[in-house]
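Why does residue order matter? Because the sequence determines the fold. Keep that principle in mind as you read this record.
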Amino acid sequence: MRRLKRSRYITGFDGIRTLAVIAVIFYHLFPYAMQGGLMGVSIFFVISGYLITDLLLQEWEQNRKIDVKAFYIRRMKRLYPGLITMLVGTIAYITLFQKELLAHIRMVFLTNLTSIYNWYQIHTGQSYFDKFAIQSPFTHLWSLSIEGQFYLFWPLLIILMCKYLPKKSVRFFLLIGLSLLSALEMMLLFKVGSDPSRVYYGTDTRVFSILIGAALAIVWPSSKLSQKLPDESRRLLNITGIVCALLVILSFFKMNGEKAFVYHGGMYLFSIISAILVATVAHPGANMNTWFTNPVFTWIGRRSYGIYIYQYPVMVFFESKVKNIAAHPWLYGLIEIAIILAISELSYRYIEIPLKNFDYSQTLIKVKQVFKRDKSHLNSKIGVAVGAIVFLIAGAGLVQQPTKKPQDNALAKQIKENNAKVKKRNSELKSGKKQSTEQVSSSSSSEVKKYQLTAAQVDKARNMKITAVGDSVLADGASSLQEIFPNMYIDAKVGRQSAEAAKIVQQLAQTGKLEQTVLISEGTNGAFMGHEIQDIMNAAGKDRQVYWINVHVPTRRWQDQVNQDLASASKKYKNLHIIDWFSYSQNHADWFYNDNVHPNPHGLEYYGSFVAKKIVK
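Structure:
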């Protein structure tokens, strides 16, 4: 017997899920090509809000009650088998092959099981947008925690609304009002130029997408939509649906998840457009459902949960083994997609569907059947044995988690020492303190030898006033550059994005603290997805000479894109000079730390020498 007599499976929703999951994956693989792909998660939220609310309202109208316990059991049986399998499998892998990711693994595991992982990410200051730092294979699971919190409270709230708010219009406007409050909070908490991870992760600042979907279910119940529509109404729905689908796809390419527009109403607007698309697909009188239904969309859509949860572990583990992913970013991306699809198919076929329909009261009986001494259930025995081994390895990882997050201690120590030296020298520059004659004489002779500079180059460098702004590579080489350029003011920070660098250059220029020679080191942490180069050059103005060190990041697929963008910009701006560190450092792995990005002490001699010669030339 059907639990809900009037419910129907809307096949076109698999098509919408397909668009969403493809956008998310391509955002993670090629953020510079599909910079708005992260908006796909908002589509998942809208669909969840619509479907869950629609089903709960159907249950109330049919039975005059909602079986909350049964709802929780259905949700857990649908989501937890896949989630737990992914968590355990991922922890087992990092226990064996990437122990540096075991830090705080117990809290990661527990907060994901209890659906509060997004708040744990906020509490620990994890960034969703720092693409260069060591990535956690669990970063993307923040959205599942928001979904879990929604599933926990929503049936109870629906019961209260049905009892005390009988008018649909009141329910609808209440939910829309709450969604606007959530969007307003996102707008107020977002700070231009800072990492938006807090508002991106927060349940309070993201729930508006779910509420918009829920509000749609109140005025657009799937079980009450007529299959017969006048031709004009059908055409209007079809045109509206097509326009919304095109706007959604366009947003995947144009909306930048680090720009103010997204958090100042852009994401809310996108959720509204997504809800309208959902409405047109849900209506049986329109053609949108048929157009969004095909074997490919059905296959991907039904496996979208597995595809979503396995994407990040595959990317993190694969890219940690490929040391020159920038050489063939699209090829490696396609390989990663193939691996993700293969694993999600196995998860769907052998974990998600069987355990979704499994009667857990029969667990002991099933286990006894599997372990009979005959040759029956051989595949099940092998599966149980493999699963037990994986669980034991994961358990070992949970027990032995390190107290501190491992890192490249030599590099971290170098940057820490540099920060202290740079801070001291920057203070001296602000106070107008100059080096003594003895210091100048002794350091000049050492620089001639250490950095292979001529005496004339050293003298010129010592008299140049330079402002340098950059990321961790500049922080790594800061002390070397200040040895050569003692009048260089340096503002460098680990994990700095180019948008933040643009703000700093603008502030320095506005306060009259930007020297006539400017050195920029940006692009290590991600491709330029906005007008960052233009913003920096506009802030510097036409009268200043800007030297920009391009990037050597073979472990990241945006390396070539960054360097191509810089080369193109140098043709546009006559006062922009590219210091081609990428070409100069090729085939010199001995110059770098293990990350093959930051110069080690030996490489810093070449780094400092190369940068200095280009500037004083």
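The beta strands are 466-470, 488-492, 517-521, 545-549, 576-579.
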